[in-house]
Amino acid sequence: MGILISGASIAGPVLAYWLHRYGFDVTVVERAPQLRKTGGHPVDLFRPAMDISEKMGVLPAIEAKVTGTERMLMHRPGKKRPVTLDLRKMFGATSDRHVEIWRDDLSEIYYDATRGDVEYVFGDSITSIGEDGAVTFEHGAPRRFDLVVGADGLHSNVRRLIFGEESAYTAFVGAYIAVVSVPRDRGATPEETIMYYAPGRAAGVETSAYSDDARLGFLFRSAQPLTYDYRDAGRQKDILREVFTGMDPQVDKWLTELDDPLAFYFDSITQLRMDTWSRGRVTLVGDAGYCPGPAVGGSTSLAVVGAYVLAGELAAAGGDHERAFAAYEREMIGIVRDSRAFALGAAKVLIPRSRLGVWATMQGIRLIGVLPTRLSRAVAKLNEKGLRLHDSMRIKDYPVPVPGTTSPDS
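Above: the chain's sequence. Below: its structure in token form.
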């Protein structure tokens, strides 16, 4: 049974791994000419995604690439001394098993786990999908597949082809994110993330022990969606300058890096609100189907879990996609809805609107530092849809397939 996956970031390679293990014939097509290395912000893997990664045998590679950041120094307007957040203590309270890793490193690890067994086609994109599984490509010859899966992110091409324009399913959360890769000597150390906060704005820098570069991160609020061409990086950089100039002398220095960055990413924090991700022979996974909002909703762990569940249900249904897609959506819908709700609250905390909001955020951070670890963990465990949401996602324990199994019948 042949399955085509569009997208080689996180969900795509994880899905490809499990489908191959279950005996499916898998092809992954990726628009970029090679595996994307566009910088990317640090992402979190929580317990369910860590458990899945361990089953895949890639946990040692992931642990070797963790950022290693131990604390965050949070500067506020008019205050000389920053508030220090012990990140180990915070994540110890919110997760039983957690790592922070840069997104492009994680993508490469999952890709390396599959590239010997799965066909990857880079530099191409799907242009049409027929009801009978006929697929045409921008460059390659037409091919036929039994199933097609969109794992191509928030701005999914597969979703557009099957469900229509993105605007029909998205909700602007009210904020934007930018990530800029710069030489590592720009004031960052592996142990510390440095952040500057002001009402409606936050900017910071982070690096890791093994990396040659550092990442500048910018988050800001906007009452309405901004008008710009997503391909116009020059205009996006101008927006950052307009928003952040004068926030702090250090942030002004960071803005000069926009002239010649190693890599640059800019996007709205937008939430997808679809309650079905399947139509005919096509389904969606990860951000393509249920992005809760970049940087605020645990979308990376959600993508890993979704890919694992989709592959498991396809195997359990013997390749019967109608049964499998329905079961996949039943298993995921509750997790997805909880993640959406969590993301809306997280955005308010990450980017406070007012001076009072900044003050309240800092007081909450101080409280984390004062409470004993055992007590803060106990308090967090009382709220599985809040601080412990991503650690408490309940998923089936699908049987690990025996190597050498044959492909499911078409």
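The chain has 13 helices and 18 strands.
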